[in-house]
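Aim 2, interim progress: modelling of the NAP-bound target.
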Amino acid sequence: MSSTQEVINLGSTNIQVSTLGTGTWAWGDGLFWGYGRGFSEQDVQEAFDSSLLNGINFFDTAEVYAQGRSEAFLGGFLREAQSRPVVATKFFPYPWRLRRRSLIKALRGSLRRLGLETVDLYQIHWPFPPVAIEIWAEALAEAVQQGLARAVGVSNYNEEQMRRAHRALAKHGIPLATNQVEYSLFNRRAETSGLLIACQELGVTLIAYSPLAQGVLSGKYTPDKAPPGIRGQRYSRAVLGQIAPLIRLQRDLGRSYGGRSASQVALNWLICKGTLPIPGAKNARQAHDNAGAMGWRLSPEDVSALDRAAGQIGR
Ligand SMILES: NC(=O)c1ccc[n+]([C@@H]2O[C@H](COP(=O)([O-])OP(=O)(O)OC[C@H]3O[C@@H](n4cnc5c(N)ncnc54)[C@H](OP(=O)(O)O)[C@@H]3O)[C@@H](O)[C@H]2O)c1
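Predicted structure of the complex, ligand included:
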């Protein structure tokens, strides 16, 4: 990152990241993302390199992504990298994981795959039962106390669940740094539910996942060209038809900001909302395009225009 580049802190921690990160779910994942059919290890290595080169210093992975392969890829790339970016991974609360120590064990597995002694951000992937929110928060606190994680966060937690995790960590003097949830022009539940405001109140950074609605907000999918595989079910022809006016506005606005892409407009909107988007990138071209969402801002009027256009999408 250049010294003049804008950075944000993860919650109230001193960990500084670029205003946009790169998501790595697709790295090694054949089932959902078609890894091995259209993109390869070389492509994801180039997505990593291009992210760093273009000022992205934050990578998000999880132990479940491609059954550990995403972490292993990231670990391999980190070993070769010129600089050490900020790395986030996640613990998956499988129903057979019932004790706090299972989190520490899982974290050690992630660290081994990543080739790190400490991860910068360790997150609980989902607030699934049967284990109480407070128990996993205690385990996160232990991870920090043992020096295995610098900061901790949660993911897919609603406001009430987030407040509980925040309180439980506060008893140990540890801040809840982040809550990673789905948020985009296509899915604005974080705004309508009050979660985004609660994050601001608590000093928690909202990390926006699927910020391009899994590629749809790039504008490359249309009613005549639905996304491949499982994605095609969620983003049906009807949905893609409803989104078309929003995409048109993204393109028009992009042009008025000196040739920005529809993806860059969608990602910049999330930055303007005070969140940290983590678009997935399968190759250098996508990473480079996504990085171009940094370093400029949509005007408040244009943010409102996008709000209105997004509000027209029926569900
Ligand atoms: N915590 C959670 O439960 C959770 C859940 C989901 C995701 N995540 C995290 O969030 C990250 C991002 O979410 P996501 O991957 O679901 O969705 P996304 O970022 O909205 O979409 C990523 C996909 O969009 C396409 N794409 C990306 N950049 C593009 C560009 N500039 N131009 C055109 N197409 C582009 C690529 O797929 P195609 O080229 O195939 O279209 C890419 O795989 C994940 O990698 C993961 O780290 C977390």
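Residues 23-26, 33, 60, 125, 155-156, 180, 209-215, 218, 220, 227, 263, 278-282, 286, 289-290 surround NAP (CB under 6 Å). The chain is about 40% helix and 15% strand.
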